Amino acid sequence: MRAPKDAAGEEEFALRHISFMAAAAAVAAVAAVVTAGSAVAVPAPGGACAAVHVITARASNEQPGEGITGALVDQIVNTSKQTVSRAAVDYPATLNNYANSSAQGVSALKQQLTTEVQNCPTQKIVLAGYSQGAHVVLDVLGGGGGGALGATTPPISSTTASHVTAVATFGDPRHVVNQAFDLGTSTRNGIFPRLNTQLQVLSGFAGLIQAYCDANDTFCDSGFSIQVHLTYLDRYQNAAAQFVLSKIGG
Hints:
- There is one protein chain.
- The protein is 42% helix and 13% strand.
- With 250 residues, the protein is α/β, with parallel strands linked by helices.
- It has a single domain (7-248), classed as Rossmann fold (3-Layer(aba) Sandwich), CATH 3.40.50.1820.
- It is globular and about 45 Å long.
């Protein structure tokens, strides 16, 4: 969402921000009920590198850990024929000062991903993110910031990014329609749409990404339904799991 240059635009910007914070409060209330388990970091047997490593960035106001996206990770772990380790991004995931929280998430995931590649260079890495976590995951790959989110930041190095094998995101507030990796029924941009330069970088990963956004989602479709935003796994968990499994080789 870019800062406007005229009075009418400023009023619209302010109203959208107020709407965002009101909807965010509703998300916080529901997230307290639907949040899954706490932070996890499951190594391969014997401490060796697993064949696959899944890193998850949770949604806003979920407790530290994988959050509701943990159900998707469970399905991948339980279905894959390979050894799979898992970890969660350690970041605030707050709605107060959202720009700072998401920026911290991007920085944390960049470091986490870089360290994982250094420690386990032959590993296949899967990234998963929900809501603010989806924002974080895709900003790491495509570059972050811009407009209301502050200064732009570069994407992670291509050397590190080349180890990412599959990406699944849900309800990304930076969603932009008509991207090759978009799935779902959305016809509108999210509340913080990505810059064209960032989308160009992400297009290079299009075959590895499934980014779900449905119509009327408060955040990724600039709509009015918190229910749509909170229920992606009800609709798409099996499809996302099958996509990840196909990319990692079962």
